[in-house]
Amino acid sequence: MWFLFALSFAFFTSIGILFNKKLTKIHPPLIVLYVGLVLQVLFLGITLITLNDIPKVTPEFYVQIIIAGCIDALAFAAAIKAIKLSQISLITPLAAFNPVFTAVFASILLKEIPTEMKLLGIVIIVIGAYALNFDKADKGLLRPFKVLITHKGAQLFFLANLLWAITPIFQKNAILMTDPHSPLFASFVGYSISVFLLTFFVLKPLIRYIPTLKPSLKIFLILGVLNTLSGLAGFSAFVEGNVAYVTAIFKLSSLFTIAWGGIFLRETHIKEKLVGASIMIVGTILLVV
């Protein structure tokens, strides 16, 4: 079942990114992020009460989930700003660097030296990243990399995925400290913490901005449902599967997102981006096998 949960996460997340892109064209990114998360927490809370799925937890649960929630808040803020600034078909494949960051952390902090297969995976991911902007190669062989390195949206999305390389460890530990194991409860608490932290930065401008949100209410509600479904699917996948394998399947969301970007947003160079994203996913799989 972990594979279906992970694939569902990828699908719902990709549609959520599409709606986020639409909303950030007319509203400030942090407002879009905050309203979406508030609705997600609301839907999760209603589901939690309806199912009466409130488990017993250890004190360590709160330590783990607070750390995850704090890191998530920073990652969410960086990612929504990146979506505002960039074509979603360009930045979302960069999520494939997530396991690369994990491998780097492991080699530095845990002295886990990557195997030849993992090094090959890293090289293939880099090749895929190059292919994302292959159309720029006629302006210089290093031009595709330069576009990624100097692009503000790409930089922010790199930061978000650097942070998201860490959170699954704390999230899975938190779920395992619930009895019975409850992904729903863990996701509710984790996202509530992210909302609490973001409130300090968003509340004042949000109060002034509330009247302008009404025309977008339906889209926000859809986004809240999508965020809820993706969050539940992601936490459920962590419970049943190996974190490395689960996060690798998560990367399939980039293929869905590129397709949505081409179909609904008329983004350019979709073929190159699909090829690049596919190559990066192959590299990701090599990193986790």
Walk me through this protein's architecture.
This protein is 79% helix and 1% strand. The chain is mainly alpha-helical and 289 residues long. The chain has one domain (2-288). Helix 2 packs across helix 10 (183-209), helix 3 runs antiparallel to helix 9 (167-176) and helix 6 (116-132) packs antiparallel against helix 14. The radius of gyration is 19 Å and the shape is globular. It starts with a helix and ends with a helix. The model has no long low-confidence stretch (mean pLDDT 87).
Question: Which key terms come to mind for this protein?
Answer:
mainly alpha, two-stranded antiparallel ribbon, 2 strands, 289 residues
Oligomer: single chain
Report the major sheet.
2 strands, antiparallel
Tell me the total number of β-strands.
2
Strand order in space, largest sheet: 1-2
Count the helices. How many? 14
Mean pLDDT across the residues is 87
Helix content: over 70%
Number of domains: 1
Detail the poorly predicted runs. Answer: none
- Helix and strand run: HHEHHHHHHHEHHHHH
Q: What is the terminal-to-terminal distance?
A: 19 Å
% residues in beta strands:
under 5%
